[in-house]
Write a structure and sequence with these properties.
The protein is an alpha+beta fold. It is about 30% helix and about 20% strand. Helix 5 crosses helix 6. The protein is globular, with a radius of gyration of 33 Å. It holds the Pfam family PseudoU_synth_2. InterPro entries: PsdUridine_synth_cat_dom_sf, PsdUridine_synth_RsuA/RluA, RluA_PseudoU_synthase. Belongs to the pseudouridine synthase RluA family.
Length: about 375
C-alpha cells in the first residue's frame, strides 16, 4: 500500500513548493505537550514514608547511626582493630598488657603485644616502654627491678614480646640471640603462594633510597649472585659494603584461592626482614603490607578481585587492611637449673577473621590424611 501511494504522487511544481515553504516558515509553533501529572501518592506509600522518617528521627535522637551496609561494617571493623590501643592512657595499656601476659618467671616476662603500639617511643602515641614502670607496680615487682624489652617487634606486628626483669637476664638474652639460640616463629597471611612451598631465603638486605614524587627509604635485597648473560647458571658478585646478612626459613602451612598461611623463622633479625623476603624474594607480599607490595611508590596494597570478594572489601578500602604478621611462638633454651621456655601466643581477632574469610586452616585443624 505504501509503495502504491508513493508511486501515485504527482511531481511538485515550483509554485507549489514556494507555497509549502512559506506555510512551514510562517506557521505558528506546535503547542508543547503538557507535563504529565504525577500519580497521586497512595495512602499506603504515605504511611510507609512517615514511618521511615519517624524511625530515622528516633535513631538520630538516640545517637544511633543509620544501618550500615556489610562493606561499611567491614571497614569500620578494620579501623577499630588499628585504633584500639594506639592512643589510650598509659594505665589502660599497662592494665591490658598485664591481663594478657603469656609467661613470667624470675628472669623474663613474655607479653602479648597488641597491634599498632610501638615498643619504643617514636613520637606517635603511647608506647610499651613508657608503661613498663606502671606494669612493674601492677605485678608488685621489687623496687630495683627494671623491665627491659628484648628482641622488639615492629609497631604493626603482634605477638610474643620478650622482657627481661634484670640486667643479668638482659645479658643472657643478648648472648643467646647472638648465637642464634632463641627460636622465634611468625605466622603471616600472604597474597600469593610461595614456590617452592618450603625453603630458606639467604639474601642480604640493605636500606635503599626510592626517588620520585614520593621520596622515601625502604629495605631492599642485595643479592650475592646474578644470572649469567646466557641465562644459565649464576655468578657471584661482590657484596655491597652496607648490606647485612639476612636468612629466613619458611614453609607454607595452607594455601587456597591465591593466598597462603606461611610460617617463618628468621635466623637473623634485620629491620623488615620477613616482609622484604616475602615480597621481594618470593613475590608474595604479606596481606596489608602497603609499604612493600609496590617497590616504586607508597600506596594501598592492590589485591586480586577474588581476594577482595572473600575479604568483603572494595579496592578503595584496602588502605584499612592491617599487616597480617604475628609472632606466634618463642622458645628459649633450657639450662642446668631451668627447663626450656616455650611460649605460644593466640592469634589476634582480625587475623583469625581473615583466615576464616580466606578459608585458610590452622595446621592442627586439618583433617588427617
Amino acid at each position: 500500500v505504501t509503495i502504491m501511494l508513493i508511486n501515485n504522487l504527482q511531481p511538485m511544481t515550483s509554485d507549489s513548493a514556494h507555497v509549502l515553504w512559506r506555510t512551514l516558515t510562517t506557521a505558528p509553533p506546535l503547542p508543547s505537550p503538557e507535563p504529565e501529572e504525577k500519580a497521586p501518592l497512595r495512602a499506603i506509600d504515605l504511611a510507609k514514608k512517615i514511618r521511615q522518617e519517624k524511625r530515622e528521627e528516633e535513631r538520630t535522637t538516640k545517637g544511633i547511626k543509620p544501618t550500615a551496609t556489610p562493606l561499611q561494617k567491614r571497614v569500620s571493623e578494620l579501623k577499630q582493630f588499628t585504633q584500639q590501643l594506639q592512643n589510650v592512657h598509659p594505665n589502660v595499656l599497662a592494665k591490658h598488657l598485664h591481663k594478657t601476659m603469656l609467661f613470667q618467671n624470675r628472669d623474663v616476662i613474655v607479653l602479648n603485644k597488641p597491634y599498632g603500639v610501638s615498643v619504643k617511643d617514636h613520637g606517635g602515641g603511647t608506647c610499651i616502654t613508657a608503661v613498663l614502670p606502671i606494669l612493674a607496680k601492677m605485678m608488685d615487682l621489687k623496687v630495683d627491678s627494671e623491665l627491659q624489652p628484648c628482641l622488639g617487634l615492629e609497631k604493626e606486628v603482634t605477638g610474643t614480646l620478650l622482657l627481661a626483669r634484670n640486667q643479668e637476664a638482659v645479658d643472657n638474652i643478648v648472648y643467646l640471640h647472638r648465637h642464634n639460640q632463641i627460636q622465634r616463629k611468625y605466622w603471616a597471611i600472604t597474597v600469593g603462594v610461595p614456590v617452592p612451598s618450603e625453603g630458606v631465603i639467604d639474601i642480604p638486605l640493605i636500606e635503599r633510597e626510592i626517588a620520585g614524587t614520593q621520596h622515601h627509604f625502604k629495605m631492599g635485597l642485595s643479592p650475592m649472585f646474578r644470572l649469567n648473560e646466557t641465562g644459565e647458571g649464576v655468578s657471584r658478585i661482590r657484596a655491597h659494603r652496607q648490606a647485612e646478612s639476612a636468612v629466613t626459613k619458611y614453609r607454607v602451612l595452607d594455601s587456597r584461592a591465591g593466598c597462603s598461611l606461611v610460617e617463618l623463622e628468621p635466623l637473623t633479625g634485620l629491620k623488615h626482614q620477613i616482609r622484604v623476603h616475602l615480597a621481594c624474594a618470593l613475590g608474595c607480599p604479606i596481606l596489608g603490607d602497603h609499604k612493600y607490595s609496590s617497590w616504586t611508590k607508597l600506596a594501598p596494597q592492590k589485591l586480586p578481585e577474588n581476594v577482595l570478594g572473600k575479604l568483603g572489601l572494595e579496592k578503595s578500602k584496602t588502605r584499612n587492611l592491617t599487616l597480617h604478621l604475628h609472632a606466634r611462638q618463642m622458645v628459649l633454651p633450657g639450662t642446668t637449673s631451668q627447663p626450656e621456655i616455650r611460649v605460644s601466643c593466640p592469634m589476634p581477632k582480625y587475623f583469625t577473621k581473615a583466615l576464616q574469610r580466606l578459608n585458610l586452616i590452622f595446621p592442627d585443624e586439618k583433617e588427617p590424611n
